[in-house]
Amino acid sequence: MESITVFTPTYNRGNIIKRLYCSLKKQTCKDFVWLVVDDGSTDSTEKLIKKWQLENEIKIEYLKQDNLGKSMAHNKAVEMTTTEIFMCLDSNDVITPNAIEMVLKCWEKVKLNENIVGIMSQKKVQFKDIKREMKVKQLPGYIKIKHDKKPGEKAFNDRYYIEKEKASDGYVETTLGEAYRKFGLKGEAMLVFRTTEVKKYQFPKIQKEKFVPEAYLYNLIDRDGKLVVLNRTLCVHRYQMDGYTFNMSKLIKDNPKGYLLYVNQKINSDDTFRSLFFDYIRYISVAGIAGEKDVIKKAHNKIVALMAYPFGVIFYLLRYKRV
Description:
- This protein has helices at 17-25, 45-55, 70-80, 99-110, 176-181, 195-198, 214-222, 248-254, 256-269, 273-287, 295-298, 302-319; strands at 4-10, 32-38, 59-64, 85-88, 93-95, 116-127, 145-147, 160-162, 173-174, 189-194, 226-229, 235-239.
- By secondary structure, it is α/β, with parallel strands linked by helices.
- Helix 1 links the parallel strand 1 (4-10) and strand 2.
- Helix 9 packs antiparallel against helix 10.
- The radius of gyration is 20 Å and the shape is globular.
- Keywords: Membrane, Transmembrane, Transmembrane helix.
- The chain crosses the membrane at residues 303-320.
- This is Glycosyltransferase family 2 protein.
């Protein structure tokens, strides 16, 4: 049996998923299964995946479900996973040829530590049709990585090299939340989880909605243990204009209850006034869309909720009313 499941949720991404497939074919280690959960695509996705299965270059498992959203696709993938570790790559991701090999080598060194629930590695972020790239701060355990790119070369390539080796022994350990709050991580991270850990939790199913923020699940896992920081950039994530990131306001407006589950989770764990205040603004701005009533009366901290209320109304008017 393979050691790692590479899960890809996809919906009408037949035009870009080939890049991910090609990067998986080039892996120096083939000890993985690519699990594609198709969320009801109506394009060429199914035809492509079945064609690649016949090529037999890598092991591929394919499931097509009704259009239930990424969260339900994730639940199904976790249910199907039998490997020791589980990793999610989006259809607009590309990984370096040594990515699986590096992940498995790292995992062999840390897997006996029961406090370790997985591995995180920083993604390089690209913006399609936008003339900028996200600047991401280095996490503890990361060293500067340069990209050797020939003049005029547009396609992603794997020529990464390390300027110097990490001075200390072992891996830095952190939760994903700490990486963003404490160490200044911005943008995307490649996450690998112990399968027994990720099987503990599911995204809730909400009637007539298809989205719950991924952070909802990651926050639950953060309570159980630490991620080790793998000292390599192994994945490039290319934002799409029709993807979640550039359509988040509409996504939240269409799925307000799922978003409120996540914000309420944050409110219950906030440990500073600032974070609590801003999370109440977020909650109030979407509560009306979700049909929530008596928000102040039901709030855990009524004073902070009352202070945030006018700002929440303004935030709703600016961000959601015209979407």
